[in-house]
Amino acid sequence: MLFDLDGVLADSTVAAERAWTHEFGADPGQVLRGVHGRRSADTVRLHVPAVVHAHAVRRIDAIEIADAGSTEPIPGGREGLGCPSGR
């Protein structure tokens, strides 16, 4: 059973980049180096002032969910699961 598909079967880098540059002003390069495999709350703690943590987690999650359509399959992921290569 596969629990973590981001970075394994799907690439949500575009959504993450948009979320982190949207209103918190965090350096997307620095954030993206450690965002995959980490809960958004943990990433927020590392890059956003403590006074806005709860708000930031809600906003980051909402932005990433709204932008989920930008998620792309990792090349070879479908084939690795034995799925057809179409979208």
From TrEMBL:
InterPro entries, A to Z: HAD-like_sf, HAD_sf, PGP-like_dom2
Chain intervals for the UniProt region annotation (Disordered): 68-87
Residue ranges with Gly residues bias: 77-87
Gene3D superfamilies in alphabetical order: HAD superfamily/HAD-like (3.40.50.1000), Putative phosphatase, domain 2 (1.10.150.240)
Stated name of the protein: Uncharacterized protein
